[in-house]
Specification:
single chain; about 200 residues; alpha+beta; 6 helices; 7 strands
């Protein structure tokens, strides 16, 4: 059985950080040269609670008391504090490179509240894939915010995810160029599950 709950500070924060890092092959590699460093940065962001990755924005799915997946929503959007962000790198002995600056300025600093609830990350742990974790998490968020439209981005070539979101009531609104520090930018769809007052 899958149980969904808001993230607690007693949960395995490192595992949560690892799953967040796995959700996007373009953004997170730009944060640090190796996966361990990326995970350390996200883990400390969660613990500090001053960034988008604060625990109020993260919900986890558990199977047999282990974290099977997660979803990150922009419910609370604290502003980015550049100096504090740099301090995370210093504390973890990780170089704050120009690519990190680019991610902060062009991606993270633009993550603000909108007139719909935005899902920024959905990830299922490899050992729990194809067991309904992602759909359970999205349905959980829909049940928590029944009077909100919900939006997300998905890579155009991720047909499995697109089919899942369509099944859950999301519709493709438009195609756009995603974020990457590389010249080749990913193509993605913005999908929206609209709330209508008469629903």
């Amino acid at each position: 059985m899958i149980e969904c709950t808001p993230l607690k500070i007693s949960d395995d924060i490192r595992k949560v950080a690892q799953l967040i890092v796995e959700t996007d092959p373009f953004i997170y590699p730009a944060l640090a040269g190796n996966e361990t460093s990326r995970i350390s940065v996200i883990e400390e962001m969660i613990k500090k609670g001053r960034f988008v990755f604060c625990k109020e924005n993260i919900f986890v799915a558990k199977r047999d008391d282990s974290i099977a997946g997660l979803i990150v929503c922009f419910i609370n959007t604290p502003s980015w504090h550049d100096e504090e962000f740099k301090e995370i790198y210093k504390n973890n002995d990780i170089e704050y490179t120009p690519s990190v600056s680019t991610v902060v300025e062009e991606y993270f600093s633009k993550t603000t509240a909108t007139d719909y609830l935005y899902i920024s990350n959905i990830c299922t742990a490899k050992e729990h894939q194809k067991k309904g974790v992602a759909s359970t998490l999205v349905n959980y968020i829909i049940s928590l915010f029944p009077q909100k439209s919900i939006g997300l981005h998905v890579l155009c070539d991720n047909q499995n995810a697109i089919r899942l979101y369509e099944k859950l009531g999301f519709k493709i609104q438009h195609k756009e160029t995603g974020f990457s520090i590389e010249k080749d930018k990913p193509e993605c769809y913005f999908m929206l599950k609209e709330y209508y007052e008469n629903d």
